[in-house]
Amino acid sequence: MSVSESQLKGPSANVRQRHLSNQAIVNLFVWPTLLLLILMNVFPLFYSLYLGFTNYSAIAQKAPLWIAFQNFSTILNDKNLWQYFATTGRYALMSVSMQVLVGFGLAMLVREKFKGGGILTTLILIPMMISPVVVGLFWKLMYNPTFGFFNALLGFSDPSLSPDWLASRFAGHPVPGLALIAVVIVDVWMWAPFVMLLVLSGLKAIPDYLYEAAAVDRASSWFQFWRITLPQVAPLLLIAVLFRTIEAFKSFDLVMGMTGGGPGVQTELISVDLYRIAFLGQFRTGYGSALAYIILIIIIAISNLYIKYLNKSKGEG
Amino acid sequence: MFKKYAFALTIIMVMVVSACGPAATTQPAVVEATKPPVAEATLPPAAEPTQPPSLGVPGVTELTILWAQWSPADYLQQIGALYEQETGIKVTVVQEPWGSFGDRFNVAMAAGGTEWDMVVGDSQWIGQGATAGYYVDLTSYMKNNGIDKSVTPATLQYYGEYPAGSGKYYAYPTEGDADGWAYRKDLFEDPANMAAFKTQYGYDLAVPTTWAQLMDIAKFFTKPDKSMNGVAIYTQKDYDAITMGFENVMFSYGAKWQNPDNTVEGVVNSQESIDALQYYRDLYDCCQAPGLNNAFYTETNDAFIGGQVAMTMNYFAFFPALANPSTNPFADVTGFFANPAGPTGVRKAALGGQGLSVISFVTPEQQQASLDFIKWFAQEDIQAKWAALGGYSCNSNVLKTDAFMTAAPYNPAFSETMTFVMDFWNIPTYAALLTPSQNYLSAFVVGGEGTAKEALDNIAAEQTTALKADGVIP
Q: What ipTM goes with this model?
C-alpha cells in the first residue's frame, strides 16, 4: 500500500500551504500600508515643513523660494497673530474648564442607576454626534434676539434691551467678548458629553470596597469625593482634557459657522486665520505652512505637559 | 530591521528632495502663460459682430465651462444647448458650489489644468487670471468683432479690463450683477404710513432718492414692538459681504479705495469715507433687523421674506426669490429700486457678477472654439435669449429693450444700476486687502468698537503694508 507524500507529512503540511508566512503578511499588508502612510501623512508633513521656509503660493505658478526663517520671524512679530493666539488660548481655557465641570457633573448624575438613566445618557450624548456646522447654524437661530429662545430662557423679552450675543452687544451697547462666550457655551453644550463619557467609565471602574471602607471610617461625602473619586478618575479626566484642549486649538467649523471670526476679530481663532491665509483667495502657502507648524508645536508642548501630569497621576512620573 | 528603516527613509528623502527641487511641473506652465495667446497670434481679422460668426473648429466637439452652482449656470447650460443645435459642438457647464468655486479654479490653474475651456470668473479674479497667465488676452478679438462696444462701459471695465484703464480685456461681461434694494410697497403705499411719515419728516413717503431719505424711512419703519425693522444690510465677516455692503454708501459718498497710483492713505480714510462708514453704522444701529450681525444674501432675503424688514439690500441675482410668490409671501407687494444718491448727488453701487474668460492652457483649437462661442454668445439676439432665460445680460441694447424691462419687476432697477457700478480691488493682492477691510468694518459696524476714523485709518495702514509687500506700491 502506497501513501502520498502529503499524507506522510501529516495535516500540518496542508495547513502551512493554506496560510501565508509572516514575511508574506508583512509584504502584503504592512508595506502597502506604510507606503500609503508615507504618501498621505509623512510626505505632506515634511513637505509642508519645507514650504514653511519658503515664499510660495499654491496658485502663483512659481517654484518655492527659500527664505529661511523669514515666515516664522514675521509670524512671531505679527501683533495680530498674537492677538488670535491669545483669543484661542482664552477660548480653550474657558471651553475646556467648563466642559470638565459640566461633564463631571453629568457623569456623577448618570452614574447612579435609576429608571430612564440609559435613555437620559443617550440623550445627553446626542450633541456631540451632530456636525459642528449644523450645531453652529442651530445656535445662531437660538441666539437670535428676536425669536431665539436662549434670551427668553434668561428672561429677556424685549429684543432692544436684551443681549445680541453674536454681535457682542447688550441692549445695543458694545460688550467685547460676549460673542466668544457665546461660542464657548455652544462648544461646552456639544462636548461636555464627551468628558462625561470618559469620566463615567472611570467612575464605574472604582471598586465599591473603597467607598465601603470609607463609610466604615465615617468619612464624609466630600472626603470620599476628594480622596477616592477624584484621584481614581483623574487619569481619564486628564485624557479628556488633553483631547479637548487639542480640539479647542484646532476649532474652526463651529466658529466659522456662527460668527466667521467676528465681530471684528473677537472670535478670530488661530485656525480660522490660518484658513484665511492658506486659502480664501490669499493662498499664502509658505506662510500658512509656517503658521501651521507653530500651532503644531504649541499643541505638542501643551500635550506633553498634560502627559507629564498624567504619568504623575499614575505614579509613573 | 535596519534595511527596512533605511528603505522607508529613502522613500521619504526621495520624495522630499524631488518636491523641493525646481518645480519641473510648474515651470512649463509659466512659459505657457507668457507666450502670446492664440487669440493674439493666430486669429485672422474677424467679421463684424452683426454677421453670423464662423463656427466650427476641426476636431473640437465639446466645450466645457466652469461656473458656480446657481441658477444662472443652469441658464447658461440652456444657452449651450442652443449652441449645440446650431453648431454640433456640445457645451457643458460644470457647476461648483460657491464655497469651493474659487479654490477649485485656482488650484486647477496652478497645475496648468485643462479640464475646462472657459470659466465664468469673479470680477476680483481678473488680476490674478491676467498676470498669472490663466486667461487668454481677448483684447484684439473683442475689438475686432465689436464685442467691446456691445456691452455697457462699466461692465466692460470691471468684468473684462485689466489693469484698470489699460484697454486690455480678459473676459466677456456675462452675468452682470450689483447691489440694489427690495422694499415693501404695501407699507410704503399705506395711507396711514404716508400721512404719519409726512407729518414726521415733512416730505412724502416714497422710494428714497438719497441715502439720507433711506435713513429716515428705515427709522420710520423700525418698530420693535411690532417686530418690524427698517432694513436688512450686509454685515457678514466670513469673506467680503460687509465690505460690499459698505461700498454702496462709500462710493455714493464720493469715496474710493485707491488713488490712480494705487496708494490708499488719505483715500480709504478720507472724510467722505469716514462719513459713509458712520452712516452705515448708524443704519445698522437704528434699523437693522435684530440678529443680522453676520448677514449676507441668504439672511437679508430671509429677513424680508419673514416680514421683519421694510427694505433689504441684496445683489440683483438674488431678487428672483423675492419676486416669486412661492418663496416670498410678500412677492405681490415687493418693489425694487436702485441705490440712492449720496450727499453730492453721486449714485454708485457695489459690483457683483462675472465675466467669461478663455483658459490659456487648453489647445489652440479649443481656444479658437471658445472664442467662437463667445462671439456667438455676444450677439444681441442670443443676449436677448440669455436675458429672457433669467441671465443678467450686460449688452447695452438688450438692457434698454422693453422686453427686458418688463421681463421681471427688478429689471428696470438693474438696468439703471449697471450704468453706475464700481468694484473693489481686482489685483492679485485683493484678498490681502480684503482682510483688514472685513476685520475693521465688522469691528466698528457690528461690534461697535472705536470710531469710523480709527477703523478706516487701520484699514489704510494695513492695506498699505499689503500693497508694499506685494510690490504694488514702493
A: 0.85
